[in-house]
Amino acid sequence: MSWFEDFKNKDLRTLARLITLCEDGDPQVIDPLGEIFSMPSRATVIGITGPPGAGKSTLLNTFVRLIRNKNQKVAVLAVDPVSPFSGGALLGDRIRLMDHFNDPNVFIRSVSTRGKLGGLSLATRQGVMLLDRFGFDVILVETVGVGQSEVDVRKIADVTLVALVPEWGDSIQALKAGILEIADIFVVNKADREGADRIENELKNILHISGKDSTPVLKTTFNDLSTVEKLLAAVEGYTNAQKEQIQQKREKAIHEIALELMEFWVLREAQQWMRSHLDKSSNPYEIVKRFQKKFPPGTLFS
Ligand SMILES: Nc1nc2c(ncn2[C@@H]2O[C@H](COP(=O)(O)OP(=O)(O)OP(=O)(O)O)[C@@H](O)[C@H]2O)c(=O)[nH]1
Ligand SMILES: [Mg+2]
């Protein structure tokens, strides 16, 4: 049987294997992914980002429970940042979702790009696409807000939550430019801690000054279920109100995906070519010149 057939038959091992192949940038994925892409899409993709330890996974754990209570299927993708120091996952216990370990309608997976080409977004985007076509109703994507990853999650998610904690109150001013662009909804998590009201007010002030008063700011606490229920309701409110915009964003993304894929494969080819020529020259311009001689500018795709 083919990848596609197995996938259509809802074989979880095939799903997991395809995600791994995407992480590895394996050329065999393009064929099955092309077929799978044409299947109907129906999932809502919720992204969450925020500083390390902001309680994102804890929050998602509760989301999973609430979504399961509605009898919907839910998948979680935790995007492992590639740490320049460890070269791999930042933390081993990023996924605090063991409550749902035995539920077949909950799929939990971390994706790591292990410093390969394509950045976080390509493998994650493909992972989300696979989970969507596989039949999950809701896909939750967690990224740690360090560097580029929080920007990438926005490209993939229908709605993006930025989680902050009271401890970050003083840093809001410094953060504001970046995070205002990213967040559809702000979460002040760990609201049981000192300073939650202050950060909430600061955020609302910044939003007001920036003309973004409509961006919701919600406080959540892990041991107060009603706060998380309200947040999920706000997320649903947002996706319902923004249906058209979300659809447009998804349509626009088709070209973005094609471009990302092309960049990935072309860069990969170029990298392989370069490696095989590297030892013959210590001058980078010589290497590029040799490449240009083999593929004169403008001829690579003619
Ligand atoms: N006081 C308090 N602690 C919380 C709350 N939510 C989570 N925590 C704690 O914060 C710590 C980090 O929680 P995680 O859910 O792993 O945070 P995270 O943002 O997913 O962390 P990374 O994935 O490592 O960036 C854990 O010890 C949680 O128990 C909360 O509402 N209040
Ligand atoms: Mg986490």
Describe the structure.
Helices cover about 50% and strands about 15% of the residues. By secondary structure, the chain is α/β, with parallel strands linked by helices. The protein folds into two domains: about 40-240, Rossmann fold (3-Layer(aba) Sandwich), CATH 3.40.50; about 245-300. A seven-stranded parallel beta sheet has the order 3-2-4-1-5-6-7, with helices on both faces. α5 runs parallel beside α6 (about 150-155). Residues about 85-95 have low confidence and may be disordered. The structure holds guanosine-5'-triphosphate (GTP) and magnesium ion. Magnesium ion binds near residues 56, 57, 94 and 142.
Concise structural overview:
This protein has eleven helices and seven strands. By secondary structure, it is α/β, with parallel strands linked by helices.
Give the biggest sheet. Answer: 7 strands, parallel
Backbone structural class: alpha/beta
Spans of 5+ residues with little confidence (pLDDT < 50)?
83-94
Gross geometry: globular
- What fold name stands as the CATH topology of the largest domain? Rossmann fold
Distance between the termini: 36 Å
Question: What is the CA-atom radius of gyration, in angstroms?
Answer: 21 Å
Which range best describes the helical content: under 10%, 10-25%, 25-40%, 40-55%, 55-70% or over 70%?
40-55%
How many β strands by DSSP? 7
Ordered list of secondary-structure elements with their pairings:
Blueprint: H1 3-8, H2 12-24, H3 30-37, E1 44-50, H4 56-69, E2 74-80, E3 106-112, H5 119-134, E4 138-144, H6 149-156, E5 159-164, H7 172-182, E6 185-188, H8 196-209, E7 217-219, H9 225-241, H10 243-278, H11 284-294
Magnesium ion is lined by residues 56-57, 94, 142.
